[in-house]
Amino acid sequence: MSPPAREQLVGILAALRLDADATQIDQLLRYLELLQRWNAVYNLTAVREPAHMLTLHLADSLSLIPALDRRNPRRVLDVGSGGGLPGLVLAIMRPQWQLVLVDAVQKKCAFVQQVAATLQLRNVEVAHGRIEQLNLPGFDCITSRAVGELAELVRISEHVLLAGGAWAAMKGVVPEAELRALPPELAHDIEILDVPGLQAQRCVVWMHRAQAPAAARPGDS
Q1: Which 8-state DSSP code applies to residue 133?
Q2: Are 147 and 87 in contact (CB under 8 A)?
Q3: Higher model confidence: residue 74 or residue 46?
Q4: How would you list the strands of the sheet with 161-171, edge to edge?
Q5: Total domain count for the chain?
Q6: Helices marked H in 83-190
Q7: Could you give the CA distance from residue 156 to residue 77 in angstroms, rounded to a whole number?
Q8: Alpha-carbon distance 77 to 83, whole Å?
Q9: Which pLDDT tens digit goes with each residue over 156-177?
Q10: Alpha-carbon distance 144 to 15, whole Å?
Q11: Coil, strand or helix: which one is 134?
Q12: What residue numbers bound the domain in which 141 lies?
């Protein structure tokens, strides 16, 4: 990547108050190079221009990290990871997290596997298939940029969410209709994301199983 790209990335990280060492910055830029190269053959994303990839993909995925940091997950599942977004970005920036990236398209899984090997991301596992058909250990956070409606994300992945865990679904504008369609046993919170350089609304919808009210004790009124 060109010096301007590095400078822009450093600015994005500063705007998000994210610390990154030289190795992580190199890994992020190398990832974008690989995405651009493979995209020419495998059509991994509709975004073609490197500068647009930097904002629409990299900055967008980076904007999720401060929100995730507040919950400090240990195992994160990225459903419908596609070209590795946000999963590979999370893996680069948070090597202490274990990431499993799932996609139903083999060529996308092959790309993600190649990136993880090239960048020596030892905290990344790639799983090919539909999440509802995979037998995976539990996760305390499930994220997605690509799965359609919120209720569908919950339906296909709820079997691998640990007790006390949460979904973190990345969306554009707040999806009011999708929120109304959620099962009543799910609680949700909206967190607005500020993506540097992106003139569009982005948010993350946090969803978790609502806790049942505590049983009344004898003598309580």
Answers
A1: G
A2: no
A3: 74
A4: 124-128, 98-103, 75-79, 139-144, 161-171, 202-209, 186-193
A5: 1
A6: 87-93, 106-118, 150-157, 176-180
A7: 12
A8: 14
A9: 999 999 999 999 999 999 999 9
A10: 23
A11: coil
A12: 3-209
Domain for residue 46, yes or no?
A: yes
In a domain, 136, yes or no: yes
The pLDDT of residue 90: 98
Evaluate whether residue 81 is within a structural domain.
Answer: yes
The Cα 17–Cα 145 span in angstroms is 22
Distance CA 41, CA 43 (A): 6
- Single-letter code of the amino acid located at 178: E
Q: Collapsing DSSP states into helix, strand and coil, what is residue 199?
A: coil
- Report the alpha-carbon distance of residue 25 to residue 21 in Å, rounded: 6
Tokens 């993506």 correspond to what residue?
195
pLDDT in tens, 176-192: 999 999 999 999 999 99
We report the CATH number of the domain holding residue 136 as 3.40.50.150
Structure tokens that stand for 184 in this block: 């009543």
